[in-house]
Structure formats: C-alpha cells, structure tokens
Amino acid sequence: MLPIFFSTFILSACCCLTKGNCISYDELKELKTEFAINLYRHVSEAENRTNLVISPASVAASLELLQFGAQGNTFTELQDALGYNIHDQSVQDFLHAVYEGATDSSQGTVVQLACSFFMDAGVQLSPRFAARAARWANSSLQQTNFTDPNRTAAQIQEWIASNLGGGDVRGIPLESAGSPLSQVTLVSTMYFKSTWQKKFSFMDTQMLPFTTAEGSTLKVPTMHHTADVNYGQFQTAALEAFNVLELPYLGEKLSMVLVLPSHKRTPLSQIESHLSAKTINLWANSLKRTKMDIFLPRFSIQSLFDLKTVFSALGIRDAFDPITANFKGISEQGSLYLSEAIHKAEIKVTEDGTKASGTTAIVLLKRSRTPIFKADRPFTFFLRQANTGSVLFIGRVTNPS
Fold first, then answer.
1. What is the pTM of this model?
2. Chain centroid to CA 371
3. Per the CB 3.0–4.6 Å rule, which of 42, 188, 283, 371 could disulfide with 62?
C-alpha cells in the first residue's frame, strides 16, 4: 500500500504594506495537537459533510515563521492561535525536534516539510528575521519580481512542485502573488510518502458496500488484511461508541490513526466533536495490541481552502488588516499585511500493486473469529508522529468514490 500525502500553504503579504515562560515538553505536545484539532474543526464545519484533508503541521510552520516577524497585537493574535510563543527557547527546542522528524527519508518513507519566503527585489528584510527564517523548518529565502506576475507564479509553482516530489500543483491560486502590490509570499509544503509496515495485497481487494453520510450505499474498492495492530473501543460523554485503530508505517515513527463510529446510525460529527488533545493522548496510551481483520476503502482526497475565515475564527484578524497589521520584524519598509491564506492538501491511499496469493475477504469473514475493523461508513483519519504526537495531516472520508 502506498499512501501519499502532500499539502501546500500559501500566505501572500502585500504592501500597503520576548521571551515567554518556560513550557514543558508534554504541554507543547498537547498545544500542538490542540491547534491541529481546532484548525480541523473550523475547516470541517465550513465544509459540512464532504471529504477533506488538511496539514496542521504545514499551516503551523508558516504561522510560526510569521511570529518571528510580527509585533504588537499581530504577534499576540498569532501566539494565541498557536498557543505558544515562538521566542521561548523551550518552544524552539521542541519544534526543532518535531521538524527534524518531519524532514526525514528512511526505510522507504519520505517526510519533508519546507518553507520559503519569496521577496520582491526591492524588499529589505530585517537581518535578524532573515537569519531566523533561514534556520526554521527547512526554510529558504528567494528573490522574485512581483511586477512580472506570470514569471513569479511560475517560480513559486516550480518550488512547490520540487518540494512535493514533483506533485501536481495545478489549481493553487496565486492571485495576490501576481499583484504589483505584493512584496512577500510565504509558502510552506508538507510531503509524505510511505508504505505500511504490513502491506495490503491487491488480490484481497473487493468491491464492498460503503454507507455515505447521506445514508446511500455504494460499492467501493475495499482493501483487506489480517494484522496485529493497536486497537481500542471508546465512548463519548453521550455514550456514542467508536473504534480507534492505529496502522504503523515502515519504521513505526509515523502511523495513521483511524476513528470509526461503532454504529452506522451514529453521525461522524458526533464523534469528531469529542476530539481534543487530551482524548487523542488517552487513545494513544490506551490502545491494545489486537489481531484484527481490517477493511479499508481505497480513497483519494484533494482539498483547497481559503483560510482567511478560518484564521479569523481562530482569532487571527489584525494580520489581514492593512491598517492594523504589524510585521515590522520582517521589514521596516512600509507596512506589510496578509492578503491571502491558501492551503492545498492531498491524500491518496491505494495498494502498492504487489500480487500475492490469499483468501478473499468474504471467505475470511466467514471463517475468522478475529475482531473486525470495517471502515464501511464515514471515518476520520490523522497521520501522527509517535515521539512528539505532532499531527502532520488530519481529514475524513465520507465518500471514498
């Protein structure tokens, strides 16, 4: 099975243009996860019942970089949204550990987080900001000419493609980047490609029923295998039961966690409202090794978001206001403000094409007494680092087709 995730997050800045208290490692793990959940919750509310995927790690890395250059209330809003102060040394130490693990290629797994500032040739960056940006989350600084919008857009698209394993970047709007008012565009990407620790066999895939969020039933290609996995059964405060399954990737540094309502009558939204950093940590510590029959539909999701509204809901407002935005830590020239916040993410989960003999899923179902995890209704998934708990991607599947 070859899952591929990637995301792009773009912040365009147009020209109209402290030290914190020490915070513990465990507190930072919780804050990072809480930001991921908050971001997902606001996006999923806007998207209602549709399939979606988003990369909180990509979005957070960009907001962290902006914190280095923000001042006054603009900085405070960014700090409140993320939950931590990027100037705190303990925060920086923790995040460097997160991003080292998020820029790694080993054992058939590729994980790459990258950020780049595209600056107009006339912009003079603060030397302090430039030094920090160059060291943050595999970042780079590049000059461009915003008066030539086509060339600028092509330069940015080329950088995005090179950091997404040559992935498809069509459909990523760069309207502000092509504006003569533009001075700085910040782009961050997260790319992930790996295989399961135990692969699914193409020979065991069948067309099986899936009940959508609307209640209709359709046949979708559904993968199957039997494996020893981390599994648990839980209840919400309203006593709605759900199952949690963890599927590790090669090397076990990263895993996909699947959250599935136990009953088809339970809307996924009721389970998602239960999501929090504390509950995810509880699951991680409570899952038990269990031999399971696992049924997982193939799925491919591509999401594109305008995050202005989402950021506003998270309390980031001054940054988009030409009058109140304060990014003087980036450049003393004029006044910079954010004109766009765009995010694109994609996940593709299929078999790896390996052919192997095996009993079909239906026969296994009839003869097997092992517990079954059957994702034949809407479910939530997230890709998580084992050591830091950082959520690299989070999304949901409401219709695999």
1. 0.87
2. 30
3. 188
